[in-house]
């Protein structure tokens, strides 16, 4: 069976062992889902306290999943939980963790220099056939891959928060990503129980390229006084059928994250009016009103 790019759907390498670098919000979710679907996973972060926090978060989340999934089969649930947890290793040692695995997924901070430095080091220690993937939301996969000598084995795997709940993975292909790498990443996404979509390496891929300018336009609308934040949210929920309004969504994503993405794109594409800075957004961020995580963004939240 050939797909629309003319290569066989069956030509992929199965990914069994995965190393995830960065055990924050995204990395811990990726580790959880990969282990729950039978992959052997190693999680790397910067200090033991972070690793401990991460292992507690993963265990708690897995316990919730297990309770739901095995509500009438306690023994099966215990088995699933124990097996899943036994497939996860935690370490501070990047090099050891990366020396022998099928795939390395990077989920560290959104900074091109830091990501390039990390991958350049991993490139030297990883097996020649190990595939590298970044979970970046807004940076160019092509640019990150430039730090390595395996640009054909480099792609994007863009997950969504919360990873255990969200069904989508965007599988990003640069001009240099090989068909084998791309197909292997797609197959891995499916093995995690996710639906994958193919994306070229363009800013924001599919979801964020549409969503971030949409949220930005909502803030500009509020800034002009066209309507209130509450009314805009109600309008988009009841009129467009969206589960959350743009301000609820902005608060959920984090206003600092939204500003960071817009600023990065504006710097790179200064002619695009959709990416221009928004004074109201900058003001909120400078006041520490970052959304749900800080207790206040467009709305107030109980901590
Ligand atoms: P986070 O701040 O929660 O976690 C980052 C983790 O990486 C931290 O635990 C940090 O200690 C660790 N880290 C940083 N540098 C490291 C290094 N050199 N070696 C090992 N560990 C290191 O960040 P989050 O939200 O999980 O984001 C991670 C990546 O995923 C970013 O590139 C972000 O753009 C992307 N992303 C974020 C989404 C979100 O909704 N938060 C959604 C999709 C992608």
UniProtKB/TrEMBL annotation:
Q: Which residues belong to any copy of the 3-hydroxyacyl-CoA dehydrogenase NAD binding domain?
A: 17-202
Per the UniProt record, the site (Important for catalytic activity) maps to 158
Every copy of the 3-hydroxyacyl-CoA dehydrogenase C-terminal domain together lies at 204-301
In terms of superkingdom, the source organism counts as Eukaryota
List ligand-binding residues for NAD(+).
22-27, 45, 110, 115, 137, 161, 293
Annotated CoA binding sites: 61, 68, 137
Record's SUPFAM superfamilies?
A: 6-phosphogluconate dehydrogenase C-terminal domain-like, NAD(P)-binding Rossmann-fold domains
A GO cellular component term found in this entry reads:
mitochondrial matrix
UniProt keywords, alphabetically: Fatty acid metabolism, Lipid metabolism, Mitochondrion, NAD, Oxidoreductase
Name of this protein: 3-hydroxyacyl-CoA dehydrogenase
The entry's localization annotation reads:
Mitochondrion matrix
Q: Which InterPro entries does UniProt cross-reference here?
A: 3-OHacyl-CoA_DH, 3-OHacyl-CoA_DH_CS, 3-OHacyl-CoA_DH_NAD-bd, 3HC_DH_C, 6-PGluconate_DH-like_C_sf, 6PGD_dom2, Mito_3-hydroxyacyl-CoA_DH, NAD(P)-bd_dom_sf
Provide the leader sequence positions: none
Q: What is its EC number?
A: 1.1.1.35
Q: What is its main location?
A: mitochondrion
Instruction: Give the organism the record lists.
Output: Oopsacas minuta
Q: Which reaction does it catalyse?
A: a (3S)-3-hydroxyacyl-CoA + NAD(+) = a 3-oxoacyl-CoA + NADH + H(+)
Molecular function in Gene Ontology: (3S)-3-hydroxyacyl-CoA dehydrogenase (NAD+) activity; NAD+ binding
What family is it from?
Belongs to the 3-hydroxyacyl-CoA dehydrogenase family.
Which pathway does UniProt place it in? Lipid metabolism; fatty acid beta-oxidation
Tell me the enzyme class: oxidoreductase
Set out the biological process GO terms recorded for this chain's protein. Answer: fatty acid beta-oxidation
